[in-house]
Design goal:
The protein is mostly helical. The chain is built from 3 helices and no strands.
Length: about 70
């Protein structure tokens, strides 16, 4: 189900109302102007949180390496 929050809604409260089960209900915040979830985001929706954290850690490491290479030039 896709639901647009009102300006007065609190995303955390809305998620708490859905209950504790993360496999039953999930919430994704989107830009106000966005109509659909982009394909870039959609590819990660079904991944578990530990896997997403690992991906993020790897991306951060790659970014740091790139920064160090740029500084070394």
């Amino acid at each position: 189900e896709k639901k647009k929050l009102k300006g007065t809604d609190c995303p955390l409260w809305e998620r708490l109302l859905q209950g504790p089960a993360g496999n039953i209900a999930r919430m994704f915040l989107m830009d106000r102007e966005a109509e659909e979830i982009s394909s870039d985001v959609a590819q990660y929706i079904k991944f578990s949180l530990p896997l997403l954290e690992t991906i993020l850690q790897r991306l951060n490491e790659e970014e740091e390496q790139e920064i160090q290479r740029t500084i070394a030039k």
